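We were asked to recover a plausible sequence for a given structure. The inputs and outputs are reproduced exactly as logged, with field labels preserved.

PROBLEM: sequence recovery
POSITIONS: 74
GIVEN STRUCTURE:
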């Protein structure tokens, strides 16, 4: 599974019995963000964790939170 979230590419693969998410910054550099869950927890749980960690990373570097287009934070 691959997706783009807030401009960051999240690539999720099943490796050695765990779902592992690798996150790339816009421009292709690997971001200092990862997520890993068990095979039983599933790929969607890994994606949710990766998105949460991207949000935390962006908050750390000072990016504004996502909004719903009407000025409300999601």
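RECOVERED SEQUENCE:
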């Amino acid at each position: 599974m691959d997706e783009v979230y807030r401009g960051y590419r999240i690539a999720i693969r099943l490796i050695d019995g765990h779902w592992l998410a690798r996150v790339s910054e816009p421009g292709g550099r690997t971001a200092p963000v990862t997520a890993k869950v068990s095979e039983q927890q599933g790929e969607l749980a890994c994606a949710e964790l990766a998105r949460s960690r991207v949000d935390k990373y962006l908050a750390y570097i000072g990016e504004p939170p996502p909004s719903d287009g009407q000025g409300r934070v999601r």
